[in-house]
Amino acid sequence: MRPIPTAIIGFGLSGRYLQAPFYRAHPGFTVHRVVTSRADELAEEFPDMEPTTDLETVLADPEIQLVSIATPNATHYAFARAALEAGKHVLVDKPACATAEQLRELRDLASHKNLHLFVFQNRRWDSDFLTVRQLLDAGHLGELINYEARYDRWKPAPNAKAWKETPGPGAGMLYDLGAHLIDQALALFGRPLDVQGSTWTQRGHSDIPDAFDLQLTYAAPLRVSLSCSLLVREPTPRFTLHGRHGSYVKYGVDVQEDQLRAGMAPDDTSFGTEPTAQDGILHTELDGLTFRGPLTTLPGRWTELFDNMQRVINGTAQPAVPLDDVIAQLELIESVAG
Predict the structure, then answer these.
(1) What CATH number is given to the structural domain containing 82?
(2) Residue 338 falls inside a structural domain
C-alpha cells in the first residue's frame, strides 16, 4: 500500500525522538512536513525538508493524511480538533486532552468525519509491561492480590521545558506520567470499581502537583497502587506484583526512549532490549517446585503502535488502544485531580 503522508506538529522530545524515528523507519509512512521553529534540529533529522511554522499550512495541504501532534499538553485538544475538521487522521500525544469531555468531543468528531483518532500511549509496548502482561497471562503468580506500579525519579530541579512547570489544563505529573500508569492498569484489569488518591507538590519551587498516589479498587482480592515522585534518589521497583502463588519485582525502566535519544533506530536489532541486569525477580511455584530467579524481560516494541495505526487507517485492523480506555483514564484523573 502507498505510504501514509504524515505531518509532525512539534519537534521537541516527543516529536523528534519518540515519533519521527518510527515514521522514518516504517515503510507505511512518509513524513511530508514538520511544524517547528527549530530549523537547525530539523535539518539534522530531515536535511532536505524546509521547516513549517504554522499549523494552517499543514491543514491546507491535501496530500497529508495523518497529523501527528507532539506539542505541549494544553494545545492537544485545539490542534487535534483543527486537524480532524480539516479531514486528517490524528495521532495526539498523551494526555490526549485536559478533560474526558474534550476527548469525547474529538471521538465523536472523528466518527462523524469517518476519520481515526489515536493517542500516543506508547508504554503499552514497554519491555517491562509486556513482561508483566505475559507473566499474568501465564498464571505463574496465581490469583493476583496486589499490583504496584511506580514512576519515581530524582529530578529536584525545575524541568527545562517551562510549559511542564506551568499551571493550567493538563498540567502536573498525574497527567504526565500518570497517564501511562493508569493506561497500563486499564489495559490489564479494565475500569476499576473505585479510585482514591491525591496529588501534591513536593519540590519547593514547583507550581504544579509533582507527586501523586492512587489506589484502584477491583473485585476482591485485587488492589492496584500507582504512584509517582520526583524526589526519589534511591531507585524503587518499577513493578511489584504479589499473587497467591508468588511474587514478581522489577527494577529499571524501559530503554527505548534512551536508545532513541542516543540515535538508535527502531529497526536496529538490539532496539528495545534491556540489559539482563534489569531482569525482574520471579519467586513462585512452577510445576510443584519453588522457583526464585531472574525472569528475562521481553524486548520493548513501540513500533507496534505505528504498525497498528497504519493497519487501522488502511482498514485492516482495530485500534490497539481503544479511545474508550483513554476516556476512562481521563475520568479517573479528573476524579482525583478535581
Answers:
(1) 3.40.50.720
(2) no
Q: What would the grid cell of residue 309 be?
A: 495505526
Q: What is the mean pLDDT of residues 274-285?
A: 97
Contacts of residue 138, defined as CB under 8 A and 6 or more positions apart, other chains included, come to none
Sort 136 into a burial class: Cβ within 10 Å, 0-12 / 13-18 / 19+. middle
38, 11 Cβ separation under 8 angstroms: yes
Pair 89, 149 in one domain:
no
Overall number of domains in the chain: 2
Instruction: Tell me: pLDDT of 273 over 90.
Output: yes
> CA–CA separation, 318 vs 94, rounded Å?
20
**What confidence tens digit (pLDDT) does each residue in 208-220 have?**
999 999 999 999 9
**pLDDT over 90 (residue 338):** no
The region that residue 105 occupies, defined by phi over 0 for left and psi between -120 and 50 for alpha, beta otherwise, is: alpha
Contact 280, 292 (CB under 8 A): no
Full residue range of the structural domain in which residue 270 is found: 123-301
291: helix, strand or coil: strand
Does residue 162 have a pLDDT over 90?
A: no
Residue 288 has pLDDT above 90, yes or no: no
Q: Are residues 145 and 226 in the same domain?
A: yes
**Backbone angle region of 197, left / alpha / beta, with phi > 0 → left and psi within -120 to 50 → alpha:** left
How far, rounded to the nearest angstrom, does the alpha carbon of residue 3 sit from its chain's CA centroid?
Answer: 24
